[in-house]
Specification:
The complex is a heterodimer of chains A (220) and B (600).
Chain A (H helix, E strand, L loop, with lengths): L7 E5 L3 H13 L3 E6 L2 H11 L3 E5 L9 H12 L4 E6 L4 H8 L5 E5 L6 H12 L4 E2 L1 H9 L12 H12 L3 H8 L3 H15 L7 H14 L1
Parallel strand pairs in A: 1-2, 1-3, 3-4, 4-5, 5-6
Helix pairs in contact in A: 2-3, 6-7, 7-9, 7-10, 8-9
Chain B lengths: L9 H4 L9 H24 L4 H16 L3 E10 L24 E11 L1 H4 L5 E3 L5 H8 L3 E4 H5 L4 H7 L3 E9 L2 E10 L8 H43 L4 H15 L4 E7 L5 E8 L19 H8 L3 E3 L9 H5 L4 E9 L2 E10 L8 H68 L5 H28 L2 H6 L1 H10 L5 E6 L6 H20 L6 E8 L2 E8 L12 H11 L3 E5 L6 E8 L13
The chains are: A alpha/beta (220), B alpha+beta (600).
């Protein structure tokens, strides 16, 4: 991202107050909010004309109050593949996450309330804009904690579980190293061990790694 | 007294030593013969013989006693005027003037002996007419004799001629003080000897006891038979069998009990048309069960019952304009009984016979059947109403939950997030020197975030959004992941089901998982769901302590209500120490849209 120019953002949410709040948060954090929409149709028109670097979309919007945001995200990804997309939802569901992330890189699926943890939210937005795929930690926690009778995760050490969860959230090896206070080399060793133990293929990108781990966790 | 017998007496005519017989001896002999005959009849009755056997035996013994070659015993019934509504014009029962009608008598042969056995078999039924010995016997209440030309030219002339009969005597049969029937004896000789009437009367008076017993026996048997049929039908109704099954069964029983040809059930529709619900017995091109019942005669049963709301009979279709189709299918007479449901004429049961008019007590005996049909219809309607209202109540409750979830999601939760955001901005503007204020604001924001999380959990518990957006499979898998007890989930459903069904199934699994974790101390729960043949089958079972009872007011009671409100079946099996299993079957439309929003 060129430091000279602020990344351009469009926002979509039918709750004006909340939308304005997020807009002002992003504006204060070095983004340029180039437009706001109250539903999927408006968002698409806006995205087509503004061609922003990032779209932050509420999943549930008029008219159906269902998963309109997800549908709009899919269209934007197809028409404007360069646009990073963050879908915010009151509830995180793994099928929605995988549905969204199947669209490629620079995608985020987060709990709406994450915006209130300002510093971390802005950090996440920047990571996504820069190319990462991010899945809300609470969703990953739900997947990792789900109890299974013969749990394939039982072969992992507690540290490896922690690393696996961070992989699912979309953290890079460097990001993981930073989070658990070890060297990147150590993380690499953990990752290799995890992939071997769980019989998962080596992924070329962090994005593919997220999808592979999510899929594994969902199906176990 | 000392004069020898003339030899004209049939009983002694064959006696080798007739000349030696004094009148006393002859009387004694006759008495002994009569006693022996009665003993044989009585033995039959005591042995539980069927009435037809008893009556035939009476005819047989009488024939031997008086030297007749043909005898028969018949019941006589009277159809009182005014019964059966308007008789169709031209039928024997009809009275074009619409005024009073003469009582009509019919006789039905119940026992037959000798040469008449083929010509006048058991079941033969005819109207008593002038010129018949039987008619005279019933009207005069005394034995009546007919012979010569009078017999040859009478109503039985053809039969009499064919069998070569030349004289006949009829004697009324009085059972328990009532005129029960008539017995007829005929001979090919020129005439019966004098005194035959009184000998017949003597014998029949004594035989009446046997007839009464046999009759009572038959009535008991018929009653038991009818009661058994009614009980079978009542059981069907009580089980809540579909009305169609009750209609078919009732029609079948009606034919068995009353009809000698056909039984039909017809429903009057609100638009004035009629539908043939069930048909048993004879049939024709105009008979299409389950289809509109059309082209019936405006003076026939269907139209007259509809017009009058009362029982109607046709004694002879030959006199009914438009009666040809019924004649062609072999019917001669019929009775139609109205079925009233909640005070409204709902339909009719009609029975038809290929023989003469149906017995006069047919209408009265059929009322038990029609009232059972009325009960079945009322039950079915009540059940349908109940089902609809239960389904409405469940739907209304679900709609309320969805609305609360939406209010929480789109209102409360959004506002909380907005508030926290605002608080964070205020926090960011606090000057550096006021560190304590800043950290207080920060803690406030964190506590509010906790409230926001709680609201999210609550709203998810009220109605899981994923169920509406993605369907049963992802919703159940999500439920399984959040369960404290490990869950094996196997969902073979590849399409969206009607929302009430998805919601119902979801709550069943949700409640069972809660139960398994909280009460049953289970170590694993298995969930199987699949659709096949228009049915969703859901099975949830755990390996916990069992002993769950819907009676104990657990959440399981609500589940049963909910599933049954959807027309489904819910069964709980939870023996003490043997785990808990719930099986549900819910009707779902076949086909439908393919599943949407599945992540894999």
């Amino acid at each position: 991202m060129a430091s000279s120019r602020a990344p351009q953002v469009v926002l979509a949410d039918d709750d004006v107050l909340l939308r304005e709040g997020v807009a002002s948060l992003l504006a204060r954090s070095g983004f340029e909010v180039v437009g706001q929409a109250g539903n999927g149709t408006e968002l698409l028109a806006l995205a087509r004309s503004a061609r922003p670097e990032l779209a932050v979309i509420d999943i549930r919007m008029p008219p159906g109050h269902g998963t309109e945001g997800l549908t709009a995200a899919r269209v934007i990804r197809e028409e404007l593949p360069g646009t990073a997309i963050i879908v915010l939802s009151a509830h995180v569901e793994v099928n929605e996450a995988m549905d969204l992330l199947a669209g490629g890189e620079r995608l985020g699926y987060l709990l709406k309330s994450r915006v209130t943890d300002v510093a971390e939210f802005i950090d996440t937005v920047k990571r996504i804009t820069a190319g990462a795929s991010v899945v809300d930690p609470s969703l990953v926690q739900e997947l990792v904690r789900a109890r299974r009778r013969r749990d394939p995760l039982d072969v992992l050490s507690p540290r490896e579980r922690q690393v696996l969860a961070l992989m699912a959230e979309g953290a890079s090896n460097a990001g993981i190293a930073q989070r658990i206070f070890v060297t990147e080399g150590t993380v690499e060793k953990h990752v290799r061990s995890i992939l071997t133990k769980l019989d998962l293929p080596e992924s070329e990108t962090d994005h593919r790694r997220v999808l592979a781990v999510l899929k594994f966790l969902e199906a176990r | 007294m000392n004069a020898p017998e003339t030899g004209a007496d049939g009983t002694n005519a064959t006696g080798a030593g007739a000349a030696r017989n004094s009148p006393d001896q002859a009387r004694l002999r006759r008495l002994a013969d009569q006693q022996a005959a009665l003993r044989r009849v009585a033995t039959l009755v005591a042995g539980g013989a069927r009435p037809a056997e008893v009556f035939t035996s009476v005819a047989d013994e009488l024939g031997h006693l008086i030297g007749a070659e043909a005898t028969f015993v018949s019941r006589v019934d009277v159809s009182s005027p005014g019964r059966g509504g308007p008789g169709p014009p031209g039928s024997p029962a009809a009275d074009p003037s619409g005024g009073r009608r003469e009582a009509e008598r019919h006789m039905t042969v119940v026992g037959s002996y000798g040469r008449v056995r083929d010509e006048v078999p058991i079941g033969f039924r005819t109207r008593l007419q002038p010129g018949m010995a039987s008619n005279a016997a019933i009207q005069t209440r005394h034995s009546a004799r007919i012979n010569g030309e009078e017999l040859a030219n009478g109503p039985f002339g053809a039969i009499v001629g064919k069998l070569g009969m030349r004289a006949a005597i009829a004697t009324p049969i009085v059972v328990e003080g009532r005129y029960w029937g008539v017995t007829v004896a005929a001979t090919s000789r020129a005439d019966f000897p004098a005194g035959t009437e009184s000998r017949m009367a003597d014998f029949m008076e004594l035989a009446a006891t046997a007839i009464a017993n046999a009759q009572a026996d038959q009535e008991l048997r018929e009653l038991a038979d009818t009661q058994a049929a009614l009980r079978r039908l009542a059981t069907l109704i009580a089980r809540g069998e579909p009305p169609e099954a009750v209609f078919a069964a009732t029609t079948r029983e009606a034919l068995r009990h009353f009809g000698h040809g056909t039984a039909r059930m017809i429903r009057y529709e609100p638009d004035g048309t009629a539908t043939l619900l069930a048909n048993e017995g004879s049939t024709g091109p105009h008979v299409r069960a389950g289809k509109p019942w059309e082209g019936y005669s405006p003076t026939g049963l269907t139209a007259t019952v509809l017009r009058t709301g009362r029982a109607v009979r046709v004694d002879d279709y030959r006199g009914v304009p438009g009666g040809e189709p019924y004649l062609r299918e072999g019917l001669r007479s019929a009775v139609g009984m109205p079925i009233h449901v909640n005070g409204r004429l709902w339909g009719m049961i009609a029975i038809g016979s290929g023989e003469g008019p149906l017995p006069p007590d047919t209408e009265q005996r059929m009322t038990q059947f029609t009232s059972l049909v009325a009960t079945a219809v009322t039950n079915a309607q009540n059940r349908a109403d109940l089902m609809t209202s239960r389904a409405r109540i469940v739907a209304a409750a679900d709609e309320t939950r969805r609305r609360i979830e939406r209010d929480l999601h789109d209102g409360t939760q959004q506002q909380l997030v907005s508030l926290i955001l605002e608080l964070r901005m205020v926090e960011a503007t606090v000057p550096a020197g006021l560190g304590e204020l800043r950290s207080k604001l920060s803690r406030l924001a964190e506590r509010l975030a906790g409230v926001s999380d709680q609201v999210r959990e609550i709203s998810h518990g009220i109605h899981p959004a994923i169920l509406s957006s993605a369907g049963l499979r992802p919703a159940l898998r999500a439920l399984g992941r959040r369960s404290a007890v490990p869950v094996d989930i196997n969902v073979r459903i590849d399409r969206r089901l009607p929302e009430p069904v998805e919601v119902g199934a979801y709550y069943v699994v949700s409640e069972m998982l809660t139960n398994a974790a909280k009460h049953a101390r289970a170590s694993v729960v298995a969930v199987d769901a699949e659709t096949s043949g228009g049915t969703l089958r859901l099975r949830v079972r755990d390996d916990g302590t069992g002993g769950a009872s819907p009676l104990r007011g657990s959440g399981l009671t609500g589940l049963k209500d909910r599933i049954e409100a959807l027309g489904g079946m819910f069964s709980l099996h939870s023996p003490e120490g043997g785990g808990t299993a719930v099986c549900c079957e819910l009707p779902v439309p076949e086909g439908g849209q393919p599943g949407a929003g599945h992540g894999q």
